[in-house]
Structure of histidine kinase:
Amino acid sequence: MKLKTLAAASTAALAVLSLLTASGLTLSTSTMDREVTRLSDMVREVRSIMELEVHLLIHERESVRAALTQHPEHARARDAARDKLERWLEDLRAAPVTEEDAGALQEAELEVEHYLAVRADQAHTDGQALSPVESSPVTADEADHAYAALEEVLSTKLAEARVARARVDEVKRRSEAVSIGSASMLLLGLLLALWQASKQIYRPLLAIRTAIDRYGAGSHDARAPNGGLDELRAIAVAFNEMAAALAEQRRKQLGVLASVAHDLRNPLTALKLTVDRLKPDRPLPPEERLRPMFARIGQEVARCDRMLTDLIDIARIEGGELELRYEERDARELAREVVELYRPTADSHELRLSLPDEPAPLRCDPLRIGQVLNNLVANAIKYSPSGGAVQVTVAREGAEIAIAVSDRGVGIAPEDHARLFDRYFRAPSSRQVAAGVGLGLWAAQRIAEAHGGRIDVMSAPGEGSTFTLRLPVTESGYCTRAARLQSS
């Protein structure tokens, strides 16, 4: 999983949970508001009905008192009660009612209006007061009917109010459940996101840092675990590949040191054996024996110097800087010098030189090109343990000068040709014949490329090899300049 995917998934999950929570709370709030409004309307209706009942009783009482006493105060109280009855009737009519309640409520209104009408008629009949015996039978039934109708509506409204209150309580409980559930889901989602972040990001990062710290402390076998997000796995893979490459490079460098020590040991051993013949307490050998000994010493010292020079050049190439001093030379001369250098020491090999009649002009650093040819000829001799001919051929091929070195040695498999010029690479067939570190051909190719040329190879197992150094032709002119060879 990628970091972008994890972030998008976590954000989307938390957004969905938040949306569900908001939707649930909004629905609960809307339902609660609707039920509370309905309950408020019911409370208003109940109050109106109860006020009607109270003022109906007050009106009946004051009507009877006014009829008995003819006192103005009771008449005013009766009229005030009548006004309040009419006002509460208007308030009750304005309240929203359901179809089921409309019939009973209308009947109660009619009963109250009928009662008021009967009382009003009795109060103004002939302008005379009626006795309680005369008035009570007339209005008692009407008052009872009106009160009973109001009481019936009140009972219905109270029952509906209790049901509405129960619904409000239920909505409240549901809202609380939704709130608790939503909060729990959000908390669980957050914990899950943190757990995933710890599993996919923090712990892999900590493991990579631990591996880097161990490697920096000298534990070169430390490797980062391949886990977590794709980006962190890519970092771990890159670190492990780097550590493996450094370990391989360190192993090859140790091999270089071992090979150099081995190669230096041979001339030093020869020098020691030669010098041991010249004991301080013995007379010097005759001149005819002494001259070959000094010649041998000179050859071995030159060999050591050449090996050390090659190592220094390789170090310069690896460091990305090598000074080249160009001169105009003839490739025939360079090839002849190399063959003459190796002819005295190649006892079991026949060194052949084939040169064209025409000049083969080159603009090159003769020391570096000589180093390349030395490497090619030395390899031809080294990897031809059974002896045989080593052919050095100079030819002009179009705009190039080709210097080919051929042998009849062990040969190289075609699948290894592409890697022959890699640093530290040695073909399996070569490793079985002679020691080495795989830097000679790499350095030779870098030098050839610095001159605008290259080294080609043609070889097959058991059929020998041909390495061809190709350099551009220089028709005329003389140039001496310094350049820098950048290692690839």
